[in-house]
């Protein structure tokens, strides 16, 4: 039988998985809202239409970087909440990497002077993967300890 004990430092995981996504999403969404105004992309359009919107690529890069964050967020939170039961401090630090990396990803991806393929990592966006791998490893370690108990 395996007994699950919530570690005392788990509150840091709760902050990272509960408050971090809200703050990061608001920051990234703010850039999208600013882009909507600057590039005149009105609702309900999610993306700008090339040929119709003068600066479609510029806006779409901002929107796509926010969408990238939203697409991976649910998996990240689940892994952090679970992995944090085994390694709470590591997962809390990983959350900082993930959220800061997501912001840097947007800054790089939105820079139209850079090639689309490399832009997302040019300004530090790759550090979000440090947070992902910390949570992935921690979740795997938790599963292993539960299966071998």
From TrEMBL:
**Record-given protein name:** MAPEG family protein
Q: Which GO terms describe its molecular function?
A: glutathione peroxidase activity; glutathione transferase activity
The GO cellular component terms are:
endoplasmic reticulum; membrane; nuclear envelope
Q: Which Pfam families match?
A: MAPEG
Any keyword Transmembrane?
Answer: yes
Source taxon at top rank: Eukaryota
Membrane spanning stretches? 12-33, 87-106, 126-147
Does Transport count among this protein's keywords? no
Q: Which UniProt keywords apply?
A: Membrane, Transmembrane, Transmembrane helix
């Amino acid at each position: 039988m395996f007994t699950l004990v919530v570690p005392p430092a788990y509150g840091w995981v709760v902050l990272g998985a509960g408050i971090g996504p809200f703050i990061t999403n608001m920051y990234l969404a703010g850039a999208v809202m600013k882009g909507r105004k600057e590039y005149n992309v009105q609702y309900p359009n999610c993306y700008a239409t090339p040929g119709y919107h003068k600066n479609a690529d510029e806006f779409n890069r901002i929107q796509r970087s926010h969408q990238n964050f939203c697409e991976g967020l649910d998996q990240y939170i689940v892994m952090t909440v679970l992995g944090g039961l085994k390694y709470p401090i590591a997962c809390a630090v990983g959350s900082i990497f993930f959220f800061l990396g997501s912001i840097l990803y947007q800054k790089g991806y939105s820079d139209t002077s850079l090639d689309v393929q490399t832009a997302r990592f040019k300004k530090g966006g790759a550090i979000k993967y440090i947070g992902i791998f910390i949570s992935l490893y921690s979740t795997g370690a938790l599963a292993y300890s539960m299966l071998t108990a």
